[in-house]
Amino acid sequence: MAEQLWDMDKINYVGNSSLTSGAEFHYYNPDEVVAGKKMRDWLRFSVAYWHTFDQRLVDPFGDGTAIRPYDKYTDPMDNALAKVDYAFEFYDKLGNDFLCFHDRDLAPEGDTLRETNANLDKVVDRIVDYQKTTGMKVLWNTSNMFTNPRFVAGAGTSPYADIFAYSAAQLKHSLEVGKRVGSENYVFWGGREGYESLWNTDMKLEQEHAAKLFHMAKDYANEIGFDAQMLLEPKPKEPTTHQYDFDAATTIAFMKEYDLDKDFKLNLEGNHANLAGHTYQHEIRVAREAGLLGSLDANQGDKLIGWDIDEYPSNLYETTAAMYEVLENGGIGPRGGLNFDSKPRRSSFEPNDLFYGHIVGMDSFAAGLRVAAKMEEDGVLKNIVADRYSSYKSGIGADIESGKAGFKELEAYSLDKTQAELRAATSSDHLEQIKDTINHYIVNTLGK
Ligand code: XUL
Ligand code: CO
């Protein structure tokens, strides 16, 4: 790359010798082996095109504040093409291996889908050229079927057949783009697939239509030989009041109901988990126990703000918990990664804040990986969990497990047990001690 587009040098790993943060990684050392794999292969970091290159840093009360070096390109197509140059230099400097995008992140819409597709293809041509020289991979692509006013009442769940038809047509092209760029996954976040009021909503029909669109997408992907892992991304609310893919458990039930669980897995996001009243760890646990963990969107919410703020992850406790689940799963998913569905705060409006945001996000997950790997290596939680359920290994517990004990045997066993005996069958969880242990692991693993 001849010209320097971003005023930033390559971000390198320097270890944790200095306490202040600069343009460097303190924990992410891509080729270092942790728990048997290179860090880059555990984490598979991806930069989200929409938040990084398109987001103007608006909030519900204020205009965008972002200053971006490509703002000088005022023609929308010139701007879209220039942004690809900026994006690939950004990846080179940051050292991420993957990118993610929606179709509409890349190029402006025309008046018809034919014109829109032509605009998109020009930008995709440029991305494919860069991929050839840089080896950059696409973690996933997706289709934006929620921004344009035509999607006011949803896409696949729209009550208007023309909009369903248009959504299918848009998706068809987006899958073709996915094949061209070699996307490892394809994501469906249910943009406006939900409802505002049940008084005017045929909930069953809408969900049947959503499932129909997903099946059509998978069938078409098979037809064109696009073998990406299909993913659904749950979110409980925003933009609609009631999103159908509320959380991991609800989405898994939907997938099973409509026979999608063989071909689809989940893409889980930290802030979405919080909006559903869950932790990120809870969502990842639910998915991994169902064998349906696909990929992760990395961000965090703010306990003091109610909306989806897509903050760069910085909470080491949460990243440790997430990476603990990932290690237990043997990896994020068959082809999953950590996509920074994150943006700078509105007050962090300079171009280089995009680098600093990714640095804190990547370092937080790298730190979480290091801590979780040490906890796994020492088996610290494994022993605690095994001990807690040990009564199922022998005696009446083993009989419950084997099916030998039914209601009658369990009644005979329990009928004369005294309160004191039953109290003695339980023991304290010592949860505070566990949390203190986790704190020690965080401080000591990272302090070395
Ligand atoms: C919205 C969200 C999306 C999806 C992709 O909350 O998370 O960015 O990840 O459409
Ligand atoms: Co997301």
UniProtKB/TrEMBL annotation:
Entry keyword Protein biosynthesis: no
GO biological-process terms attached to the record: D-xylose metabolic process
One example GO MF annotation: magnesium ion binding
Compartment(s) of residence: Cytoplasm
Cofactor note: Binds 2 magnesium ions per subunit.
Keywords noted in UniProt: Carbohydrate metabolism, Cytoplasm, Isomerase, Magnesium, Metal-binding, Xylose metabolism
This protein's GO CC annotations: cytoplasm
Keyword Cell inner membrane applies: no
PROSITE patterns found in the cross-reference section: XYLOSE_ISOMERASE
Binding positions (Mg(2+) 1): 233, 269, 297, 341
Active site: 102, 105
Entry EC no(s): 5.3.1.5
Residues bound to Mg(2+) 2: 269, 272, 308, 310
Coiled coil regions, renumbered to chain: none
Cofactor(s) the protein requires to work: Mg(2+)
InterPro entries for this protein: Xyl_isomerase-like_sf, Xylose_isom_bac, Xylose_isomerase
Catalytic activity: alpha-D-xylose = alpha-D-xylulofuranose
Subunit structure of this chain's protein: Homotetramer.
UniProt record similarity statement: Belongs to the xylose isomerase family.
Protein name as annotated: Xylose isomerase
Native source organism of the sequence: Secundilactobacillus paracollinoides
Gene: xylA
